[in-house]
Amino acid sequence: MQVNPFDYVVFGGTGDLALRKLMPALYYRERDHQLTDDSRIIGVSRTDQNTEAFRAQITKALEQFVPAEDIEAGVLARFLGRITYVPLDATKPAGNWPLLVDALKDGGEKARVFYLATSPVLFGAICRNIKEADLICPKTRVVLEKPIGKDQASANAVNNEVGAIFKEEQIFRIDHYLGKESVQNLMVLRFGNALFEPLWSANYIDHVQITVAEKVGVEGRADYYDKAGALRDMVQNHFLQLLCLVAMEPPSSLTEDMIRNEKIKVLRALRPITAQDVKSRTVRGQYRQGAIEGKSVAGYAEELGASSNTETFVAIKAEVDNWRWGGVPFYLRTGKRMPTRYSEIVIQFKAVPHNVFGRGAGELTANRLVIRLQPDEGVNLQIMTKVPGPGGLRLRSVPLNLSYAETFKDRYPDAYERLLMDTVRGNPSLFMRRDEVDAAWAWIDTIQKGWKDADQPAEPYPAGSWGPLSAALLLARDDRRWNDAD
Ligand code: BG6
What we know:
Helices cover 35% and strands 21% of the residues. It is an alpha/beta fold. It has helices spanning 16-31, 51-65, 73-81, 97-103, 123-132, 152-163, 181-191, 222-247, 256-269, 278-281, 300-304, 404-407, 415-425, 434-453, 469-476; strands at 6-11, 40-45, 83-87, 111-116, 140-144, 171-173, 205-213, 282-288, 290-292, 295-297, 313-319, 329-335, 342-349, 368-374, 378-386, 395-403, 459-462. The strands form 3 sheets. The chain has a 9-stranded mixed beta sheet with strand order 16-15-14-13-7-12-11-8-17, sandwiched between helices. Strands 3-2-1-4-5-6 form a 6-stranded parallel beta sheet, with helices on both faces. Strands 9-10 form a two-stranded antiparallel sheet. Helix 1 crosses helix 13 (415-425), helix 5 (123-132) runs parallel beside helix 6 and helix 8 (222-247) crosses helix 14 (434-453). 6-O-phosphono-beta-D-glucopyranose is lined by residues 214, 233. The active site is at residue 238.
C-alpha cells in the first residue's frame, strides 16, 4: 500500500549509511510501488556536486548493495527522477539553505522527514538551522541515527538541543534492530502464542543468551569506532533493545507508548555493574591478526594504524532485578571478526525436576528455544524424543525447526525499509523514546566507569575466534556454556 506523499531529506546524503542502507531501502519501497509520484528525496551534504553526480553516486551504490536481479531499469529511472541534491554545510546558518528551501517548495502539506545521518555532535546545529530556514511544517519529523551521544550527559545535551526545536512526538530515534523482521517476530512469538508466556520467567527459564557475532572488522569506520567501542556501538542500543523485548511484560496493545512503557521498566531494573564487579561480570576483548575462512586478516591496531585499548568484543552477565527475572542471568556477547556472522537469542529452560527414565536411557537435556535473528532467520526448539527402535528406551534432544525462508518465500525486507516508512507514517512505536536512551546510557556509563576505575584491559583474541577465553569462563563459572560451544 502506498504511504502518504512525503519529502525525505537526508543530511549526510553522501555518507556510508545513506548509500549503503537508506537509498537501497527507499529503492525497494519504490520497486514495491509504495511511493507516490509526488514524493521527493533530497540528499544534503558538504560535497560540492550537482544532482546528476549524486544520482550517479546512488546508482553506483545500488549496484553495489542491491542484488543485480532486483535492479529494474524502469524502477531505477523512476527512483532517480525523484532525487535531487543540495550541497550545503548544514551546521552553518548561512550558505545554501535557500537551495534546500527551493527543493522543498510546495511541500508544506506532505510529510517532511529530516534524516540526520551524521555525527550526533551536529544534530543540535542542524536542527536549529532547519528552524532558522523556516523549514518546519505541520508534518515534520526528524530522525536521529544512533549513537546519540557517547554517554548519558552528552546524550542528554543532544536530546535537549533537538528537543528545543522539535516536540518529542516529532523525534524518531532509530535503532535498526527494531525494524528487523526477526526482532518483530519475537513479539509475535511471545504474545501471539499461548505456549511460551506461562513459562517465560525465572520459574522455568535458567538463563538467556544474546549473541551478535560479526565477521567484519571496523570497515573504514575506525575513526568513529575507536572512540565508541563495542559497548557503546552495539550494547547500549541493539542489545538493550533486544533484552527489553525478551524481558518486558506484555503490553496491553502495540501502540507506541504501551511498548515503550514496558521497555523502560526493564531498563530501569537492570542491576548496575560497578568497578567491584566489572571483572567478574564483563569481558573486554580486541582482535589480533588471525584468519577467517582460511583468509588471513589484520589485527585491530594494524587496521587503525595505532595501538588502542578500545574493545571490539564484549561479553556481559546482565541481571534484571524484578519479580519475573530474579536470579536469571542474561549473557550478552558481541564481537567483530568472529568466525561467522550470526545473531541469536537463546532461551535456556530449566531441566525437568526428576528423571523418570533412568540413567541408561541417556542424558535428559533441558529444552532450549533458539530465536535466530540472522542469517537464516527462524526458530528452533530443542525437545527430548525417543530414538526409534525396538531396543531399550533411548532419548535424544532434537530440534523442532521453523525456517522463515522455507515457510515464507517472500524477500525479507531490510530493517530500514520498514523504519523509513514508519517515519513517513508518523508511527514511532519501533523508535526509542528519550527516557529509554537515557536509562540505557545510565547502565552503560556505570560499566564504562567500572572499566576505567578497575583499569580493565581489552584482552587479545585472534580474528576468527569466539573472543577471549574469559568469555567462555564467564559462563563456565556458572556451570553454563555458550550455545555454539556445544
Ligand atoms: C551498527 C553498528 O549499528 O550495527 C555496526 O554501528 C554493526 O558496527 C551493525 O556492524 C550491525 O548491524 P547488522 O544489521 O548488520 O547486524
